[in-house]
Amino acid sequence: MSKEDKTEAVGNVGKCKLVVVTGDDGKKHLEATCLSKEAREQMAAILEQEAVLRVNPKMRFDDTLAAVEPAAAPVDQPAAAPVDQPAVPAA
Q: Within a 13 Å sphere around the CA of 20, how many CA atoms are in the beta-carbon half?
């Protein structure tokens, strides 16, 4: 069984992709792959705070999470072109 067969994508948090990995002993653990060191630090800070696990049987669960891709890096938007200001007449 390859490592890909032992992983299950569970979602994204910020710029990190989360997967559940099943070890050879059958135990599962969570792994996060982040797009940058900053994203990794943000993920670590979130995990160091408090994790709240809720049960909501009415929640709609979408099985399409297996195809989750890492969040794309934000694209810097070019600055808007300067607006021409009317010339101030000399006094």
A: 9
Please state the domain extents for the chain. 4-56
Nearest 10 degrees: Cα torsion 47, 50, 55, 59:
-60
DSSP-derived secondary structure for 35-88: SSHHHHHHHHHHHHS-------TTSPP-GGGGG--PPPPPPPPPPPPPPPPPPP
Whether the pTM exceeds 0.70: the reply is no
Q: With bands split at pLDDT 50, 70 and 90, how would you rate the model's confidence at 66?
A: very low
Q: How many CB atoms lie within 10 A of CB 64?
A: 7
